[in-house]
Amino acid sequence: MPRLALAAALLTVLAAGPAPPEGSEARIEAGKLVILHPWSRATAAAGASAVGYLSISNTGTAPEHLLGADCAIAGMTMLHATTRDGAVARMRAVESLPVPPGGTLTLAPGGNHLMLMDTKEALAPGSHFACTLRFATQGPVAVEFAVQPAGAAAKAPM
Prior knowledge:
Layout: H1 3-15, E1 27-30, E2 33-41, E3 50-58, E4 64-71, E5 74-85, E6 88-94, E7 97-99, E8 104-107, E9 113-119, E10 128-135, E11 139-148
Parallel strand pairs: 2-11
Antiparallel strand pairs: 1-2, 2-3, 3-8, 3-9, 4-7, 4-10, 5-6, 5-9, 10-11
């Protein structure tokens, strides 16, 4: 990778926001995609909503799009985009989120995320659950989310 592209990729990752909590260090490589740190927060009971976070880097030269996810633990899984209007944050379901060539899509607290509706069981800290991410070009990619305590927040970058 040329030095300029490498520097741009590093800046994209550093600007993407805080690192995920400990215990969510997974790395999945699928074609030109690198999926890092899938994690979620614990829930109190079955039927609750949960949220999925991760980063997806596109090492290729063509754009990719995350189309959604299928998580057996949830009755429905949606992609949510978060926009800000001053101090007000709004989230809405979207059909896809772009993963630019040489760039990173970050799903993180306070930003874009996977919304898992009507969970079939409580998510306990230390547990894991499987999902399949769906991409426009790459197709399905299996990932495992690490469940963090309910109050887990992302750590500051190292």
